Amino acid sequence: MKTIIIILLLSIINMSSFCQILNQDADGKSSIVVGGSTLNIDIKESLIKANYYYVPLAARGIAWGFDLQGKNSEGVAGLFEDGNFSPRAELSGIFGYKISSANPSFRLLFYLKGTLQSSQFKFDKGNTFTTIKSRFVDTIHVGGKLELGLSSRFGGHFLWGAILGNSRENNQSTLTKSVYKYSTTDPTLPGLQQTKDITAYSGTYGKYSNRYLYSDLMYFCLLKDSIHYLCPAIYFRRNSSDNESLNESNTVLGVSLNFIRVESGKFLGGVYLQDSDLSNKQNRSMGKRIQFGLIAKFTFDSIGL
């Protein structure tokens, strides 16, 4: 799976693309869609995302495209080197319709988005199993998402988006992660041993459905140097699980600062700060709820503001 993710990401980079998603949160999600293209890397969250969408320049027309996202639970470096690899991959397709007024400061994009997602990890079945093969089981999850979205520009400097969706998920993120070591002896050379790490997850594993509402609001502010836009944003996420014992419902509230070069329209990147459990239903300390990240974005086409 690692090789497939890297090949597809590099393939997308080499295409001429026309749309991107702005104001990415810690999970790489946003509801704002505009013209342009990026490869996004979030080192802290071990996440890589590439976009290939088309949005027409005309006042009305059909928008379409896809994006690919890869995330590694063992760190972003694991995407490019041998070692432990616990991947999560998502492939999304979008189909929508754009409407804009004679005044280009107002624009609406209605879209339907479908996503196929998969994850793979080793599940620890417990010490009642006496062999490595029977205890540590390769577990693959394949799920999907269906979303109805709206992305708009108004007032000349505001971008707003909203998504209503439903997904089929697993609860790997709530399992306990452990790293084990085991050694084998080379029978042809006594005393020579080989040591290997096994990263596995234990706990009550299952699948659940998640209904969610996302919303993002971003403002474009021209700096005094007239070279860059400073783009403050606020975003809201509400996730409702149908199985609270596997994954509790939660509310996310975050803010971000993003930078765009005025002349070229290149997205330069940004930072975000979010509370991943605003109501603290999971009884976590503030330090575990707050997430801070730096987004490095490589833009291959100017964005359409």
Task: Give a short overview.
With 305 residues, this protein is mainly beta. It has three helices and 16 strands. It has a twelve-stranded antiparallel β-barrel. It has a two-stranded antiparallel ribbon with strand order 9-10.
What does this structure look like?
It is a single chain. The strands form 2 sheets. The protein has a 12-stranded antiparallel beta barrel with strand order 2-3-4-5-6-7-8-11-13-14-15-16. Strands 9-10 form a two-stranded antiparallel ribbon. The model is unreliable at 4-20 and 75-86 (pLDDT under 50). With 305 residues, it is mainly beta. It starts with a helix and ends with a strand. It is elongated, with a radius of gyration of 21 Å. It contains 3 helices and 16 strands. It has a single domain (2-304), classed as Lipocalin. The relative contact order is 0.16. 7% of the residues lie in helices and 61% in strands.
